Amino acid sequence: MTLIIKPDLEHTRSWHDVFREAMPERECRDWASPGEIADIEYAFVWAPPLGELRKFPNLKCIFSIGAGVDHLLRDPDLPDGVPIVRMVEPELTQGMAEFVTLHVLRYHREVPTLEQQQRDRVWHELIAPTAPSRKVGFLGFGVLGQDCARVLHALKFDLASWSRTPKQVEGVQSFHGADGLDPFLARTEILVCLLPLTAETEGILNSDLFAKLPRGAWLINAGRGGHQVEDDILEALDSGQLAAATLDVFRTEPLPTDSPFWAHPKVTLTPHIASVTQQVSAIEQVVGNIRRVEAGKLPLNTVDRKLGY
What we know:
Helices cover about 30% and strands about 20% of the residues. The protein is built from nine helices and twelve strands. The protein is elongated.
């Protein structure tokens, strides 16, 4: 079995070293030096060039390094019949729960306003409600969203979710489908977007959606940059329809230095690091799935290509 790797970020250790330690009997090759392409049976990749995966005739499985798979499904020449596996690993899930909880609490307790008051040397007591009076809504409610909700439920926030199909999770009111979106938005003060990027969710964070939120709502997008109509976000911030936004993802990454988001006083910007795949726990998931495939079983967390996740 030979695995080819196209990494995403710089890590302390190379993915090759981690794989060699976990599977010393297996050969790992770099994307830039694949050798004999007929040997390649597994691909562990992030954003490979369009059409490149098809050149490996004996692929048995494609693993996404990250939770999202839109970087793979955008390829019109993706090999047919080869399972695509999204990354589901506990450290990545933990990281997203930490990020979302941090920014929900920042907005709930109006920390950006307090920080500005400090800069302006203004002493003004802001009386924030406690968590049971604050309505938080998850736009997209898969593995990551449900774990974030678990943490916020422990803090007693008033939680709701919107998804394609109903989701029964303790302490979370479920809205679903086209008919459920408007009432979900109408009750949501802090909107957390964790949707997969599909044809249906492209550009969903737009002026029409923002208009259905209560005036002065907050936005946290840790999903995908393709969800955002970025001019609409700026307009909603400037008009006061959105009080503030935390944006971890953008349509163009790295974000261009002339983007108005950098200096906007109502924007908290992070460089796509809300949750990053951790090597040790990720390797356990990938190796386990390789062993499943070698045993003639389907890998876990396989993507439905029609749904896009």
